[in-house]
Amino acid sequence: MLKARMNMSERKACRVVGLARSAYRQLPQAQTPADSDAGLREQLRTYARKNPRHGFRRAWAWLRFDEGDTVNKKKVHRLWKEEGLQVRRAPRRKRAGQSSVPVVVADAPKVVWALDFQFDSTVDGHKIKIASMVDEHTRMSLLNIVDRSITAERLIEELEKVFAIWGGPPMVLRMDNGPEFISEALRAFCAGSVGISYIPPGTPWNNGFIESFNNRLRDEC
Fold this sequence. Notes:
Elements: H1 2-5, H2 10-17, H3 21-25, H4 38-50, H5 56-66, H6 73-82, E1 112-121, E2 127-135, E3 141-147, H7 152-165, E4 172-175, H8 184-190, E5 195-198, H9 208-220
Parallel strand pairs: 1-4, 4-5
Antiparallel strand pairs: 1-2, 2-3
Helix pairs in contact: 5-6
């Protein structure tokens, strides 16, 4: 800028900003033929084009386990940033107010399982419903139901299967207060065995783990 707009010489411009002239003239290694990571950079760019919602950890796992490259995860992270491949996320609006529901800390597996519904439609305009559930401690997906309609009875049936697979229910199910979750059938099913933690109406940020999972599910599927 000093050279272009102020008509300064290179020597004077470098002196003004405190930069050695040799450093100013030196190209970054990534822009030189001597870049030993050129092939890896191209692999990462190709992966990012095919999987635009994946981060560097999943790219590293692809290199390590699918391609058989024993590359360091920190190196993949550095190159991922240098190539500008980070996933861009829209900034979250700040929310005012505090939840009136006591906070349950998921400090171990099977303490809090978060449950939520999503709505979408197929190309013919018919609605579909997706029920998902994750363990807030391990972030593992435990339940995914996709159907035109999901009743409380169907949800209870699927929950029973999940409880059987994982050796029993968690301590708490965290969910919003939608009609699927305030049904008497679900309350009766959870009574005496599973605590239910409802988040306040209109506050999905109080159920952040499942909302984050829903975002990734929508992006990738």
